[in-house]
Structures are given as structure tokens and as C-alpha cells.
């Protein structure tokens, strides 16, 4: 067991009951608010069939669902870490693998959405032939297959090197404690370097090409500017996604330097890495996209009208 593992298990003091309750209530309220937001978007998408035929909205709703699953898992793991300091490794394994898969899917979906913006602006006449629903679904399948590859190989290495009794033991549910072999760490470092380089170069290329196209006289400047800003926001999302891979490696050294603030460091990392980035997806397409915003707000208004008569009836005297 490495030093960072020992720090996580031994050096961090336990929260008081009131502090633990406050942190978990805040985490649950944020999860609930974002879940309502995400569910309303999925509901809007499902109620209007013309969204099914647009690759842009298909990829967007995929990201919303992906973020919702990830947020639910990491919030559950965070709350479970307070309720039960340790759980069975066999129970922890599917939770960690799903959380890692959804975390790795986000940047690849961002790259796909940036490419869609690039094609719509730079090749408008060929857009309907290049960006089809079938190709979009195939691309989403490839994205999730690539995202699933690292945790699957982590599991294979662990099964090969750890005794069977390990999966019947109780551990603190964390990726570094579940998959402890050093070869897994080095493998993931190489994978992440290639992975983020590809996504970064894709976003940079599409942003530059859209900017160049926007300067052409024959281009729809409004659409080009909007697409450019969207790709720029995807870049911000990518930077926030990278925190999920950079911050955990910094957490143990920070706790070692400031052991009395171990719980606060862990909580800030939880908010910074997993909560804040989840607010960007609704902002980019939910609020900025006029077409989706129109039907999304209509969905909220219709639900408000349904709740209003029930509220009036419940307050009716007699």
C-alpha cells in the first residue's frame, strides 16, 4: 500500500456530526437541483421528435445523461464514504468503473460536438450528408467503447495480480485503493496524455477553422460567431474535465502539507472537480441555444400550470 493510500485512510480526521451532515445536505441539494435540470432537458428532448433527427441535440442529450449518471455516482460515493467508511471491493468495483467511464466520455463527446459545429459552418452544403443520425449513434457507441477500455483493463490487471480474497475485503471506495498496481497508474498516464492531446487538438483545430471561415465575406457571421463561442466554451469544459484527472493526484500531497484541513481539501476538490463542470452543459445548450430554450421553457411553464390548480385546491377553505 503506497503513502497516498495511508494518508487517505489514516491522516484525515473525521468530521463532527453537524459538519458531516451539512456537507452531505449541500451535496444532496446540488445533486437534486442538477438532476431536476437534467431531467427537464431529457423530457424536452423526448417530447419533440424533430430533436431526434438533429445530431447536435442527440450528442447534447447524450452528454446531459452522461453527466447525470456521473453526478449521481460521485454524489452517492461521497455520501457513502461518510455513512460507511469501507465497503466490499466487489461492490465498489462497478461503481468506480461506471464513474470513470462517464468521466472519460465527456471530453470525447465535447470533441464530437466541436466537429459538428465545424462541419455546419465550414461545409454547410455537405452537412446533411456528413452528419447523419446513424453516424452520430455510431460515434457515440465508439466514444463509450473507448471510455470503457481503461477501467476494463484496470479490472483485468487487478484480477490477474490480486488474490481472489481481495474482492471480498472491505476498502474505502476510491480508484487508487481499488486498483493499486503501479502499472495501472502508468498505463492511465499514457492513455490520458494521448486522450487529452487528441481532444485538445480537435478543439483547437475546429476553433481556428471556424474563426477563419467567419472572416470570409460569404459566411453567415452570426452563426459562425455563435459556433466559435460554443467551441470556446467546450474548451473551458475540457479544462474543467481535466481537473478530474489532475486534482486527485494533488489531493494526497496537499493533505500531507495541511493535515488539519484534510476534510476541507477533499470537499473543495469534490465541488471543483465533479459539481461545477456539470453546470456548463445546461448553460451551453439549454440557455444559449434558442431553439432548445424555447421548448425547454415551454416545458417548465406547462408543468407550472399543472401544479397551480393542485396548489389552489389544497388551500381551498372548507
Give a short summary of the structure.
The chain is mainly α. It is 81% helix and 1% strand. The protein has one domain: Up-down Bundle (Rhopdopsin 7-helix transmembrane proteins).
Textual characterization of the structure:
One of its GO terms (cellular component) is membrane. Keywords: Membrane, Transmembrane, Transmembrane helix. InterPro entries: GPCR1_Superfamily_Member (IPR052921), GPCR_Rhodpsn (IPR000276), GPCR_Rhodpsn_7TM (IPR017452). The structure is a single chain. With 318 residues, the chain is mainly alpha-helical. The chain has one domain: Rhodopsin 7-helix transmembrane proteins (Rhopdopsin 7-helix transmembrane proteins, Up-down Bundle). Strands 1-2 form a two-stranded antiparallel ribbon. Helix 3 packs antiparallel against helix 4, helix 3 packs parallel to helix 6 and helix 4 packs antiparallel against helix 9. It is globular, with a radius of gyration of 22 Å. It starts with a helix and ends with a helix. The N terminus is likely disordered.
- SS element count, helices: 12
Read across the widest sheet, the strand sequence of neighbours is: 1-2
Question: Residue share in helices?
Answer: over 70%
Helix and strand content put the structural class at mainly alpha
Largest sheet: 2 strands, antiparallel
Total domains:
1
Secondary-structure blueprint of this entry?
Layout: H1 3-11, H2 17-47, H3 55-83, E1 87-88, H4 89-122, H5 127-130, H6 133-161, E2 170-171, H7 175-178, H8 182-214, H9 221-257, H10 262-275, H11 280-287, H12 290-314
Amino acid at each position: 500500500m503506497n503513502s497516498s493510500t495511508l494518508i487517505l485512510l489514516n491522516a484525515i480526521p473525521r468530521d463532527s456530526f453537524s459538519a458531516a451532515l451539512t456537507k452531505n445536505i449541500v451535496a444532496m441539494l446540488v445533486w437534486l437541483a442538477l438532476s431536476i435540470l437534467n431531467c427537464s432537458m431529457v423530457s424536452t428532448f423526448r417530447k419533440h421528435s424533430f430533436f431526434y433527427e438533429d445530431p447536435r441535440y442527440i450528442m447534447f442529450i447524450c452528454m446531459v445523461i452522461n453527466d447525470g449518471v456521473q453526478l449521481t455516482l460521485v454524489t452517492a460515493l461521497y455520501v457513502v464514504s461518510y455513512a460507511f467508511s469501507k465497503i466490499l471491493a466487489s461492490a465498489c468495483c462497478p461503481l468506480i468503473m461506471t464513474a470513470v467511464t462517464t468521466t472519460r466520455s465527456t471530453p470525447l463527446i465535447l470533441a464530437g460536438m466541436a466537429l459538428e459545429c465545424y462541419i455546419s459552418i465550414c461545409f454547410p452544403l455537405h452537412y446533411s450528408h456528413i452528419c447523419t443520425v446513424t453516424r452520430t449513434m455510431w460515434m457515440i457507441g465508439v466514444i463509450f467503447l473507448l471510455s470503457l477500455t481503461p477501467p476494463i483493463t484496470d479490472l483485468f490487471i487487478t484480477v490477474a495480480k490480486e488474490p481472489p480474497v481481495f474482492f471480498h475485503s472491505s476498502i474505502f471506495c476510491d480508484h487508487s485503493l481499488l486498483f493499486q498496481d503501479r502499472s495501472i497508474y502508468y498505463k492511465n498516464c499514457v492513455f490520458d496524455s494521448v486522450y487529452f492531446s487528441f481532444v485538445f487538438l480537435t478543439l483547437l483545430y475546429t476553433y481556428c477553422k471556424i474563426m477563419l471561415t467567419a472572416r470570409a465575406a460569404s459566411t453567415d457571421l452570426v452563426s459562425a460567431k455563435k459556433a466559435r463561442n460554443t467551441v470556446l466554451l467546450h474548451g473551458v469544459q475540457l479544462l474543467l474535465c481535466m481537473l478530474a484527472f489532475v486534482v486527485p493526484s494533488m489531493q494526497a500531497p496537499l493533505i500531507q502539507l495541511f493535515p488539519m484541513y484534510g476534510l476541507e481539501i477533499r470537499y473543495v476538490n469534490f465541488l471543483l472537480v465533479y459539481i461545477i463542470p456539470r453546470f456548463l452543459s445546461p448553460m451551453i445548450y439549454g440557455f444559449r441555444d434558442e431553439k432548445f430554450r424555447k421548448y425547454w421553457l415551454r416545458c417548465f411553464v406547462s408543468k407550472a400550470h399543472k401544479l397551480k390548480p393542485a396548489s389552489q385546491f389544497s388551500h381551498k377553505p372548507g
